[in-house]
């Protein structure tokens, strides 16, 4: 299975974020999953990729030309694809992936997550989508999504299509990964 991981190009303020990225990379490699991600060697992106490679996994990175000046491309990947822009990046990630999980990250991570969750919700794909709620990072977002559903802007039951993961040990049960 190819698993796409969305996450920050920064480390974040808490060491637990980097630990979770390394744990996820290790888990995916040890379970023979290919990692698909944004292609950078910095922040959580670099940590998940390095861990995955260290544990014998294959890694596909997808980097848009526009980010050459912001994110440093990882040179040790199994595959590194350069694409024109963010739209091509996300389209290639969706095409190459069987599941999506979001580690902590910024607005780019959220944008990528919401696109895949939306596509799942409206039936563009039926691939699992999850939030890795490291140290309650996504707790307010989860509450917001529950409010969106209560307020009638999300069909009842659609939120159940979203998997909330608290540790890598839940990936198999909640997402089939």
Write a brief caption for the model.
By secondary structure, this protein is of the alpha/beta class.
CATH topology: Rossmann fold
- Give the SSE string: EHEHEEHEHEHEH
Percentage of residues assigned to helices: 40-55%
Number of domains: 1
**How far apart lie the N and C ends?**
8 Å
Largest sheet: 7 strands, parallel
Number of DSSP E strands: 7
Low-pLDDT segments: none
Helical run tally: 6
Strand content: 15-25%
Structural class: alpha/beta
- Overall shape: it is globular
CATH architecture: 3-Layer(aba) Sandwich
Mean pLDDT: 95
Which sequence of strands runs across the widest sheet? 4-3-2-1-5-6-7
Instruction: Please identify the oligomeric state.
Output: single chain
Please tell me how large the radius of gyration is.
15 Å
CATH level 1 name: Alpha Beta
Explain what the structure shows.
The protein has 177 residues and is an alpha/beta fold. The protein has a single domain, classed as Rossmann fold. 41% of the residues lie in helices and 18% in strands. The protein contains 6 helices and 7 strands. It has helices spanning 15-30, 43-54, 86-96, 107-122, 139-150, 171-175; strands at residues 2-6, 34-37, 59-64, 79-83, 99-102, 129-132, 162-165. Strands 4-3-2-1-5-6-7 form a 7-stranded parallel sheet, with helices on both faces. Helix 1 (15-30) runs parallel beside helix 2. The chain is globular, with a radius of gyration of 15 Å. 41% of the residues are buried.
């Amino acid at each position: 299975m190819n698993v796409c991981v969305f996450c920050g190009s920064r480390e974040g303020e808490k060491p637990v974020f980097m630990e979770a990225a390394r744990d996820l990379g290790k888990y995916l490699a040890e379970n023979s999953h290919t990692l698909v991600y944004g292609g950078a060697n910095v922040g959580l992106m670099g940590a998940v990729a390095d861990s995955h490679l260290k544990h014998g996994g294959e890694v596909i990175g997808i980097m848009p030309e526009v980010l050459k000046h912001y994110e440093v491309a990882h040179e040790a990947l199994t595959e590194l694809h350069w694409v024109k822009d963010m739209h091509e990046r996300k389209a290639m990630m969706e095409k190459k992936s069987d599941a999506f999980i979001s580690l902590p990250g910024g607005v780019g991570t959220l944008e990528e997550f919401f696109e895949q969750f939306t596509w799942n919700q409206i039936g563009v794909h039926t691939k699992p989508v999850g939030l890795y709620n490291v140290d309650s990072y996504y707790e307010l977002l989860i509450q917001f999504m529950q409010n969106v559903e209560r307020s009638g802007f999300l069909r009842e039951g659609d939120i159940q299509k979203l998997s909330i993961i608290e540790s890598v040990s839940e990936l198999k049960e909640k997402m089939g990964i």
